[in-house]
Structures are given as structure tokens and as C-alpha cells.
Amino acid sequence: MYSQALDQRDPLDRRDAADEAPALEAGFQARIDAEDKIEPNDWMPEAYRRSLIRQISQHAHSEIVGMGPEGNWITRAPSLRRKAALLAKVQDECGHGVYLYAAAETLGAAREELVDQLLSGRAKYSSIFNYPTLSWADIGAVGWLVDGAAIMNQIPLCRCSYGPYARAMIRICKEESFHQRQGFEIMLTLCRGTDAQRAMAQDALDRWWWPALMMFGPPDSESRHSDRSMRWKIKRFTNDGLRQKFIDATVPQAQYLGLAVPDPALRFDAETGHWQIGPIDWDEFHRVLAGGGACNRERLEARRQAHADGAWVRAAAAAYAAKHAAPHPGPHPAPARAAA
Ligand SMILES: [Fe+2]
Ligand SMILES: [Fe+2]
């Protein structure tokens, strides 16, 4: 899933890139302008490193927390086929979290510290996962809209200037595409079903539409990191630009499903060729981001519990690694030498 709006600022980010040696800085920017990839051992401004660690770790946390709302439905999937697809999807999300933590580690971040930031509530994850999944149709709507929005956000990251992040995103995007399709197919099946099934699909769209649009982050006018992230080619499109792409792709899909987009102001602007939406409730966005969503507490509690339950696995892995790092004693102990 996806990287939340980059508005959780680390005080060190405020250090101006101009503090760095100007020649190194100029060379770094020239490489970025030439579409070169920056690799872990290359020189980079400290603010670039910190900005990426924050973005990549928030992205990793989102993948991990994002397993919760859907994992909730694995035991209640309506058929073996649906269960197998949902299990595969949730496992993919775990894998995405693992690649991304590994990408953050290449920048010098310690995984334990990143996980601790999540568990202590200091780090953010995508606020979309603070909404509940109330019916099976929500699994369809999450795949279609949430993974769909994630793809829109993440495709440009495949060309991000930082090599390890860009390469991780290529595989992740392929998997997100499967997630989006399995979600749309669930919606399509429900919409071709009984009246009750269609009503369930409509209810899911009603609840997920606006939160999905908020996944692109605050409007450009309020987005504090955009300019610098664009110059460093961490970000390629603005929040509003990506949101519009998503709306233009998704409204026709809702029409194909025969569902109504829950926005009375929605209209197609023939002049611009874009769908225009009504106002987004940014108060809700800020409230959920600040911890006021239906499931914020539950999601973090689930992560803390999982971390505590996994303590023995980490201890066993550390003991195994220590045993193999020690010099091998050989099959037989050497005979003791007689004292001279
Ligand atoms: Fe994902
Ligand atoms: Fe996904």
C-alpha cells in the first residue's frame, strides 16, 4: 500500500540542503537531473537521506498495518477461491513491508528503531487503514480503490531517484495490480448478483470513496514537502495531479459496475476532459491522521500484540545466527597437549 502524505516532519529535515558542501550538492543534483540512480554508498545530502528514510518507513508501516483490515476477512471469505486470493494478497503486503524496511536499512536506518517508532505511535502509516472493513464487499472496495490508489501513487516511485526504493517498487507495483484486479472482480461479482449483494457493494463504495481520495494527501496548496521532493525526483507528480488521475480512471469503472459515486457534485468537464469532484472533507482527514479514526487504537494494539507474540522467533533467530557466527569446533575436540 502506500505512502502517506509527507507531512510528518523530522526536525532534522529543516536543515537546509545548502548547508552541505556546495560542490557535492551540485554534483548530486546534476546526477538526479540526468536521471542517474543514487545508490546506498553514494554521497547524498543529509536531508535527502532523512526524507527517504521517513517516506520509505512510513510506506513499510502502511504495508504491515494494512494487513489488518483484510486479514480480518480471511476466515470469512465466501469460497475457497476467494480465500486463496485474499491470503495471497495479504502475504504480498507483508512482503512489501519487508522489502521496504530493507530499502530503508540501506540508508543507515536500524529496523528495530523503525519498528519501535511504529509501535510507540511516533511514526505514521497510511490513515486509510484506520477505517473498518464491515462486510465482504469492503474487501472488494479496498482492492479496487485502496490498492488502485496505491498503484497511482507508486507507479511514479518506480522512477524514484533512489535506486533501492525504485527497484523495490517495480515488483510491488506488479503485485498491487493483481490486488486491484481481485478487488474489482469481487465488486463485479456482487454487482451482477442479487439486490442485497448490489446494495452491499454500493454501501462499500459509499464508505471507501472519500477516504481513498484522501490517500493522495493534502491539497498541493498545503503540501509542505512537494517542491523539494520533486527537485530530488523522489516525487514526480503532485498530490492533486495524482488524485485527478485516479478519479478519471475510477469514475468510469464505477459506472461500469452500475454503482453511484457518493458525490452529488461529481460532473464531467468536457472542456478539460476531467471529472470534477465536490469538496473533500479535510477535517476528517486530519482527525483520522491525529488518531481519531474508528480503528487507530485497534490497529496499533494488533501490531504491538504481534510484536510481543513474535519475541521468541526473534530470540531464536538471533541465537541461531550467533551459533553459526561462532568458530566451528570441528567434529572432535583436539586432544589436550601434555604439559611440557
Ligand atoms: Fe502493498
Ligand atoms: Fe496491495
Fold and architecture overview:
- The structure is a single chain.
- By secondary structure, the protein is mainly alpha-helical.
- The chain has helices at 22-33, 46-65, 67-71, 80-105, 111-119, 136-154, 163-191, 195-214, 226-231, 239-257, 282-292, 296-309, 311-325; strands at 267-269, 274-276.
- It has a two-stranded antiparallel sheet with strand order 1-2.
- Strand 1 (267-269) and strand 2 form a beta hairpin.
- It is globular.
- Residues 1, 63, 93, 96, 172, 176 line the site of one fe (ii) ion.
- One fe (ii) ion binds at residues 1, 93, 147, 150, 176, 179.
Quick recap of the structure?
With 340 residues, the chain is mainly α.
Features:
single chain; 340 residues; mainly alpha; two-stranded antiparallel sheet; 13 helices; 2 strands; 2% strand; globular; disordered N terminus; binds fe (ii) ion
Rg value:
23 Å
Percent of residues in beta strands? Answer: under 5%
What is the number of E strands?
2
Straight-line distance between termini: 69 Å
The helix content, as a percent range, equals: 55-70%
SSE blueprint and pairings:
Blueprint: H1 22-33, H2 46-65, H3 67-71, H4 80-105, H5 111-119, H6 136-154, H7 163-191, H8 195-214, H9 226-231, H10 239-257, E1 267-269, E2 274-276, H11 282-292, H12 296-309, H13 311-325
Antiparallel strand pairs: 1-2
Helix pairs in contact: 2-4, 4-7, 6-7, 6-8, 6-10
The site of one fe (ii) ion (FE2) has 6 residues, from helix 4 and helix 7.
